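EI: anyone free to look at a 404-residue chain?
SC: sure, send it
EI:
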Amino acid sequence: MTRVVFVNLYFYPDHSATSQLLGDLAFDLAQSGETVVTIASRQIYDAPAQQLAARDKVRGVDIIRVWTTRWGRHFIAGRLIDYLTFYLSATIALWRVVRRGDVIVVKTDPPLFLILAAWIARRRGAKTVIWLQDLYPEIASALGVIRSAGYLHRLLLRLRNRALNAAALNVAIGEDMAERLTAMGIAPATLRIIHNWSDDEAVTPQEDAQNALRAAWGLEGKFVVGYSGNLGRAHECETLLAAAKTLRAHSGIHFLFIGGGRATDALQKRAAESGLENFSFLPYQPRDTLSLSLAASDVHWLSLRPELDGLVLPSKFYGIAAAGRPVIAVTTPASAFGRMIETAECGYAIATGDSVGLAEAISVLATDAELRRRAGANARYLLETRFTKRQALAQWRAALSEIA
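SC: here you go
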C-alpha cells in the first residue's frame, strides 16, 4: 500500500489553519485505510514555549515531531531561526522516513521547504504533491522582505519552479493562484484546484438567542463586526481603522477580534490611541466552540493586500460562510474572491483604502436585519454547493489515488 507522508510546520493538536486542514485530510486518509505519516515541529502556533511529544499516533496517523528552536512568530529574526532549524530537522527526518513509491505531500509552511522535499523525493524514488497555501518568494518580494529584482529572488524562484514542475501534482487553493502558476510556466497537467474548507458539519448557523458567548463577552444589543484567526502581514488594517473612526458616533457598533498574529498587537494599540473604545480583543478559542464564536459576530471583516492577489487567499471565508454570516472583504473587487462575494450576494467587496465604502457597508448591514439574514443564507448556500469539507476531502482522495 502506498504511504502518504505529510510535511508541515504545525500539526494536531495545534489549532492554526494549516494544521487543521492538514489534520482533516490526514485523519480522513487514515480512516480510509491509507498508511499516513506526518512530519511537523513540536510547537503550538501561538504558544511556542509549549512542546509536544516527539512521537505520537493519533487516529491512525503516525506523527513525527522534530526538534526546532522555539522563538515563536512575534519577531522576524526568531521566526527565521525557527524555520531554519525546522528545515534541517525535517530534512533529516524526511530522508530517513521516505522510501520508493511513497507520496510526499508538502505544504508551504515553512516557505519553500518544497524545494528540499522535491530533492529528497527524486533521490528516494518518491512522488511529491505540493499543497500551495501561498506563493513564495513572491510574497516576500511583495512585502519588501527581499528585492524582486535581486539575485536571491531569482534564485529562489528558479528552484521553486523546478520543484513545481517536477511534482506529480500541484494543488492551488484558488483560481487566481492557478492562473499565476500557469503564467509562470508551470505545466497545466500538474495543476489541480482544490479549495480549502471549514468543518461545515460542526460549524453551523446559530441564532443570537442561542449564543451564550455574546452574553459572556458583553455583546448583547450590539451590532458586531468580527474577525477570527491570524492577523498578519498580508492583512491591511488602515481602511478598517478609518471606517471605525467614521462610525465612532454609532455606539451600537462593536468590533471584535478573536485570534492573534503579528498585526493584532499593532491594531490594538492603534485603536486605543485613536480612542476607539468599541474594540475588543480575545485569544484563539477552542475548536469545539468555533460555531458559537464565529456566530457571535453579525458580519465578518476580511482583508488582503492588493499586491498579494493570487499569492495567498483569505481562507477564513469558509468558516464565516459555514456560520451563515455575511462578509465584508477589503480586497481587490475584481479578483476571483471579490467577484465571488458579489456574485453570490453574500456580502461586499470593498477596495483597499475605501474607508467610506467600508463604513457605508457596515452601516447598511447594521440597519437592515433582512439583508443580513439573506446575505448570511447566501454564504451558507455557496459553501454547501461548492466548498464543503466532504467535497474537498473527496477531491483530495481522488487526486492522490490518480498519482499513487
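EI: The mean pLDDT is 95.
SC: 👍
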